[in-house]
Amino acid sequence: MFVWLLFSVACTPPEDVPVVEEPDDPLPIPELEARDTTAVWTAGEAAAAVQIALEGPFPSPFVLRASLNDWFDHGDAECPGPGTMMAGPSFEGCTSGEGWYFLGVGGYSETFTETEEFGPYVELNLMGDLTLVAPASAEGGTTTLDIGGHWITVLHEIGPSWRTVLNGSWREPASDQDWLANGISAWLDYTGTLGEGGRFLTLDGALTIRGASLGFDDMSLGVPGCGEVPIGAVRVLDPSGGAWSFDFGTACTPCGEVTFDGVPVETDACLALDGLADRVIEASLP
Question: Is the per-residue pLDDT at 201 higher than 60?
């Protein structure tokens, strides 16, 4: 009885605590109007936009690593600090003795590992939320480097093979690489393997590059018997806000099903992605 009384007292709310009653009607969820989008491009123009976006060099973490090395060469022990990582004084922004400005946190690291299962491999990790500014006195005048996100690539000696995760946005207007000079934005996962059986690559996610916003749905290159023809699907954003999709399926044909905002479009528009595999490989291996 004594324990029961204690429990009863402990569970009885004080009289001065207001009781909140549940509303009779929950907050209404707004109904979004269905979007009625009319395409600006034709299917052929959408296919051309994909090809133009993927014709140039593919984004490479090694290009960005070299660029970061150049920037850190103009820093010092006080700003942004020793090594290849920004922290401490760069949180609020600091200027090195050479007049180079560092703001934010980030940098890059390389980790070497060897296991019995996977053999030797290295992980290159580029990450941060930072802005770097060169002084007007620097060669080329005032330039900047803006980074927001992470770029992780794991390279295996066996194969060789790699897996890369590229998320965020990257831009350095003074770069001699057009993709970095104009900037990219991505949420992309891509892998590749080279071996006696040939090469095999996959791309999955989104990439905005050379003025086009692309989406890859498990797009693979190097499937036996398909040559340069991919399987899977690729999408591109139309100026109207709608999306064109080219679905190759598994038929090894560059003329897959074309849809706009999910509605099939009768067309003979095809994609030519010759050389894309070579460009991805060149960008992904040191």
Answer: yes
